[in-house]
Design goal:
It is a single chain. The relative contact order is 0.22. The chain has one domain: Glutaredoxin. It has a 5-stranded mixed sheet with strand order 1-3-2-4-5. The two termini are 31 Å apart. Strand 2, helix 1 and strand 3 form a beta-alpha-beta unit. By secondary structure, it is an alpha+beta fold. It has 6 helices and 5 strands, in the order E-E-H-E-H-H-H-H-E-E-H.
Length: 176
């Protein structure tokens, strides 16, 4: 990251390539960089779901990958698996399964999720077809100053407060 990077702004605007839930015309867009194996990312998931229910068409939620394999050994594999699900129009279904699981996200769990969604084996070596997509998300996160997960941006500005429902609701209200 260059020294003049603005770490309070989302470096890459949301595009149709992003995984998004909610109306494109929503007055508020929340972008979260996450790692499926990160306990804090997983803890933020139910909060974001409740906020989407609360705000309805006024809130669009975008998920971008920011796996941290140095801390979470299965994070990249989970990101690849979610992209395989996206190819079948099932990204959010798998996203919810992974985010809401109380089980460890190890190789056995990954194989079970893959099988339950009919995804087959997903190998994740560097030449994987989803590697570029995930690298792009990581790069955009780094340009935005992301160093850990979850990292949340509301209408393009970094949210530096707590990720509890009340605090995020206030931030979203202010952005409307």
């Amino acid at each position: 990251m260059s020294s003049d990077a603005d770490t309070t702004q989302l470096a890459e605007p949301v595009t149709e390539e992003d995984h998004q839930r909610g109306s494109e015309s929503a007055p508020v867009t929340l972008v979260m960089y996450g790692d499926y194996e990160c306990p804090d990312t997983r803890a933020a998931h139910p909060v974001l779901k409740r906020l989407q229910q609360h705000f309805g068409d006024d809130l669009r939620v975008v998920f971008r990958h920011f796996p941290r394999p140095e801390a979470h050994p299965h994070a990249e594999h989970l990101a690849f698996l979610s992209e395989a699900a996206a190819d079948q129009g099932r990204f959010w279904e798998l996203h919810d399964l992974l985010s809401e699981s109380n089980e460890p996200l190890n190789e056995e769990a990954i194989a079970a999720y893959s099988s339950s969604l009919g995804l087959g084996g997903v190998h994740y070596e560097g030449g994987h077809p989803y590697a570029d997509r995930i690298r792009q998300d990581i790069a955009s996160g780094r340009r935005s100053g992301v160093t850990g997960t979850p990292a949340i941006f509301i209408n393009g500005r970094r949210h530096n407060g707590s990720y509890d429902e009340h605090t995020l609701q206030e931030a979203i209200d202010l952005a409307r």
